[in-house]
Amino acid sequence: MLLEWMMNGHAILYTGVTLAFWSTILIVGICYTIFDLGFRFDVAWFLTETSPFMWASLGIGLAISLSVVGAAWGIYITGSSIIGGGVKAPRIKTKNLVSIIFCEAVAIYGIIMAIVISNMAEDFSGTTPETIGARNYQAGYSMFGAGLTVGFSNLFCGICVGIVGSGAALADAQNASLFVKILIVEIFGSAIGLFGVIVAILQTSKVKMGD
Amino acid sequence: MAELSFNVDHGYLEGLVRGMKAGILTHTDYHNLAQCDTLEDMKLHLQSTSYGKLLSSSEADLTVSLVDSKLRESLVTEFSCLRSNALPPLSAFLDYITYSYMIDNVVMLITGALKQRDVAELLPRCHPLGAFDQMAAVGIARTPTELYSAILVDTPLAQFFQDAVSESNLDEMEAEILRNKLYKFEADRRAFIITVNSFGTDLSGGERSELYPSCGKLYPEGLRLLARAEDHEQIKAVADCYPVKLNTLAFLQQFHFGVFYSYIKLKEQESRNIVWIAECVTQRQKSKINNYIPIFPGTS
């Protein structure tokens, strides 16, 4: 059966890519060690030479894009179930739009955080690690971290609300009294997206870019 | 992680099938139907259920066979609605459901041909869910190899018939054996049917165990029990827990294909129930009318 699985096209692709990736890393690492070029692998150089603006922009990008992915995922999971269930039980259509609204709220959290974080990016005039100053570096890293926080928590919140909303739609189609009970589960699910926003706000509260 | 990606392709159809399942007759419906005195009464009662105008459009005499064929027609319509909207792998799954009907049809045509019956008169009696293009030609074949190489190799049944075509000649008993060999994937029900059918013939217990499919919930303890069962009482004891209950349990989970299979089987059971009630009504045997198998308990 392992042979059968290996004959599958997808499996061959994945194993091939993984093998190529890890063997490249291994060979490059061995070469650097043999030729005594290990000093080139310098984390401190990387962190000080990259501009804080790069980290800040990455944070903003991740905040909005991961939140939108989560919201979209949740909406299609719920939406297809509402449409399917609504064929034989048309009364569920309007009530179940609440699930879609909960998923959409996740995307709104993402865009709010992206705007808040992007407003903190100010100009500074240093060019070397000493003149840029620790505070600007800290600002860059904080903005990146906040973007990661809000992005991933909204991603999973959106998926969670979507799956629960799908169950709510199908249960509502069978028995109308179940909808409100399952809505409570959804409310708890959407609270976790809110946690992400709160922590991200806390992370960026001390950010001060500039001279 | 099925719930993350199931709804992309199959969310709509799952919602649709669950809506159709809500239309299956309940306890109270069956109770009303059992109170009827004529088929006309039953027709009126059926109109208020999800069957709607099914029977009222026919102006011919209302007989039980007409009711049966109309019910079957509605099942086929619903199934083809699901099948035409399905994407793989759901489409492959729904195709597998039709294969069992196809095998039934093929075996029926073979036995009919053996008894020198005209193929044309057998064709309308084939189950419509198992129809495939080369059905009419099946009756012409004389030996299994000819049957396989000329006709079945093009149908989706080819893979099942490959192992079974080692019989040297076709006769009645072997047709049933052929069918049972092909049915490896409809395990449990076949186990019961084999046992019941073999009471009248002289298959010994050992031969019977050979015919049992090697999968399904009954394997292996239930099968051992069945092989030793010698009369109907013992069969009932083993059969008490299974078919309808398992099918209703499939609806308790979301994001899997079991709901489609279970819906088809429950709809068939419902057709059988309605036909049974209709027969009892027309023959005025009210005592046996409650021998149908209710599917869902009555809800408010």
Q: Please, could you describe this protein's structure?
A:
Chain A: GO terms for molecular function: proton-transporting ATPase activity, rotational mechanism. Chain A: Keywords: Hydrogen ion transport, Ion transport, Membrane, Transmembrane, Transmembrane helix, Transport. The complex is a heterodimer of chains A (211) and B (300). By secondary structure, chain A is mainly alpha-helical. Chain A has two domains: 1-40; 43-202, Four Helix Bundle (Hemerythrin (Met), subunit A) (Up-down Bundle), CATH 1.20.120.610. Chain A has helices at 2-7, 9-34, 43-49, 52-88, 92-95, 97-118, 129-132, 134-174, 178-203. The radius of gyration of chain A is 24 Å and the shape is flat. The termini of chain A are far apart. Chain B has 300 residues and is an all-alpha fold. Chain B has helices at residues 2-21, 27-34, 39-47, 64-84, 90-114, 119-122, 135-138, 144-150, 158-164, 172-182, 187-198, 205-211, 221-228, 232-239, 243-249, 258-283. Chain B contains 16 helices and no strands. Chain B has one domain. Chain B is flat, with a radius of gyration of 21 Å. In chain B, helix 15 packs across helix 16 (258-283). Helices cover 61% and strands 0% of the residues of chain B. The A-B interface holds A 73, 76-77, 79-89, 159, 163, 166-167, 169-170, 173-175 and B 3-4, 7-8, 11-20, 22-23, 254, 299.
Taking all Cα atoms into account, the compactness measure Rg of chain A is: 24 Å
Number of continuous helical runs of chain A: 9
What fraction strand of chain A? under 5%
Q: Quaternary state, please? A: heterodimer
What's the main sheet of chain A like? none
Q: The CATH topology of the largest domain in chain A is what? A: Four Helix Bundle (Hemerythrin (Met), subunit A)
**Which structural class do you get from the secondary structure elements of chain B?**
mainly alpha
Number of strands of chain B: 0
So, the CATH homologous superfamily of the largest domain in chain A?
lithium bound rotor ring of v- atpase
Shape-level CATH architecture of the largest domain in chain A: Up-down Bundle
Annotation field: number of helices of chain B: 16
Mass-distribution shape of chain A: flat
The number of domains of chain B: 1
Largest interface pair: A-B, 23 and 18 residues
The rounded distance between the terminal residues' Cα atoms of chain B is: 35 Å
The first-level CATH class name of the largest domain in chain A: Mainly Alpha
The parts of chain B where pLDDT drops under 50 for at least 5 residues are: 165-173, 198-238
Poorly predicted parts of chain A: none
